[in-house]
Write a structure and sequence with these properties.
Layout (H helix, E strand, L loop, with lengths): L4 E2 L9 H6 L10 H17 L6 E5 L2 H12 L5 E6 L2 H12 L4 E5 L8 H10 L3 E7 L1 E2 L4 E2 L2 H8 L5 E5 L18 E5 L10 E6 L1 H8 L11 H9 L9 H17 L1 H21 L3 E2 L8 E5 L6 H10 L3 E2 L1 E2 L8 E5 L6 H17 L8 H12 L1
Parallel strand pairs: 1-13, 3-4, 3-5, 5-8, 8-9
Antiparallel strand pairs: 2-10, 6-7, 9-10, 11-12, 12-15, 14-15
């Protein structure tokens, strides 16, 4: 008999209380009963995202929320900046291409963070830039970009700052209003401790004005004007994923009961312990500015990284994520997001130690676990 442990950067583990909340018999969504649930869920969403801006929930992955942002802002004569330092930063560029949104890509070496100063220079040089598309946690590399600094820069211009917070919301500090973030795009299956299936998006007054001025808006299901109007009435324009909304409400309740600042502190401690454990094993961290929700680590030369991840998942029952694109087989990614605690980290590092030893890598068994435990003991 084998237990499975999920330490991937999405989907993440789902608490039993959240799963049980979704197991009740379904009921109709055009009722006061569902509106009451949705009203509570939207209010909690705003508090967890630290915003007074309206939030819309849609049946999609986080990419759906990202597509909604691009589709509603793309307009003739407007240009955008896409900040691309990994697979998901590149997704902003791919979405802009799909909707004919002329854009300039600021390419960043994978593993490095975006330099806000470059963004400031580009905005000063081009008055036609209407949107800056950024990624808070670049899931493919484990890099945490400085959204607070970007918000200070973009807020001084007519452009709006749109942030992919799919793998950071609920795990990494994101002060939407204080940091002048105009649009936040979120997915349900990571820090928010839910199965995949919900996209969320918050929209500032500045962004909403720009959306409403968009010519020939190329959105139907993802029309943010419709979504915001419905959200204001505690409703949705189209059929919602009822069970997932109920589960989201329960998950957000758990985050609020823990406390947002405590939640951020927990994720900082977990990721610190993971990094300490990896370095104690002689491994090199990959991200120059590491995220609290996912840690990336370089694998030893000559080691088949893809085979290592497969063995850990299929034999040991501990699921980590491998590298993507050019990093496939070269790095591994360990998530500490959402429903994750110190014993998940200790177990994950122990499994990694054994898998490395079996693969012939010269490590000191127990060194990674010990280093993580020392972090936890110091708090």
């Amino acid at each position: 008999m084998r237990k499975d442990y999920l330490l991937t950067p999405g989907p993440s583990a789902v608490p039993a209380d959240v799963l049980l909340s979704m197991a009740h018999p379904i009921f109709h969504h055009r009722t006061s009963r569902f509106q009451a649930v949705l009203k509570e869920t939207l209010a909690r969403s705003r508090r967890v995202l630290m915003t007074e801006n309206p939030v819309a929930i849609m049946a999609s992955s986080g990419t759906g929320a990202m597509e909604a942002a691009v589709a509603n802002l793309a307009s003739p004569g407007r240009r955008a900046l896409t900040l691309e330092g990994g697979k998901f930063g590149e997704r902003w560029g791919e979405l802009c291409d799909a909707f004919g949104f002329e854009h300039e890509a600021i390419k960043v070496e994978w593993g490095r963070a975006v330099d806000p100063g470059i963004v400031e220079e580009k905005l000063a040089a081009d008055n036609s830039i209407a949107a800056v598309f950024a990624t808070q946690c670049e899931t493919s590399t484990g890099v945490l970009n400085d959204i607070e600094a970007l918000g200070k820069i973009v807020s001084k211009t007519k452009a709006v700052l749109v942030v992919d917070a799919v793998s950071s919301a609920g795990a990494c500090e994101l002060r939407t209003d204080d940091w002048n973030v105009d649009v936040v795009c979120v997915g349900s299956q990571k820090g928010l401790m839910l199965p995949p299936g919900l996209g969320m998006i918050s929209v500032s007054p500045k962004a909403r004005a720009l959306v409403e001025a968009t010519e020939n808006r190329r959105a139907y299901y993802f029309d943010l004007v419709k979504a915001m109007k419905s959200a204001a009435k505690d409703d949705t324009p189209y059929t919602p994923a009822i069970a997932l909304v109920i589960g989201l409400n329960e998950a957000l309740k758990m985050i609020e009961e823990e406390g947002l600042e405590e939640c951020f502190a927990r994720h900082r401690l977990l990721s610190k312990a993971v990094r300490a454990g990896l370095e104690a094993l002689g491994l090199e961290l990959f991200a120059e500015r590491p995220s609290e929700s996912v840690t990336s680590v370089r694998l030893p030369e000559g080691l088949d990284g893809a085979a290592l991840v497969k063995t850990l998942r299929d034999v040991e029952g501990v699921a980590f994520a491998g590298g993507q694109a050019a990093l496939k087989g070269r790095i591994m990614r360990i998530a500490t997001m959402g429903y994750c605690g110190k014993y998940d980290v200790i177990l994950g590092l122990g499994a990694l130690e054994m898998a490395l030893a079996k693969a012939g890598i010269d490590i000191e068994l127990g060194a990674g676990v010990r280093a993580a435990e020392e972090v936890f003991l110091k708090g």
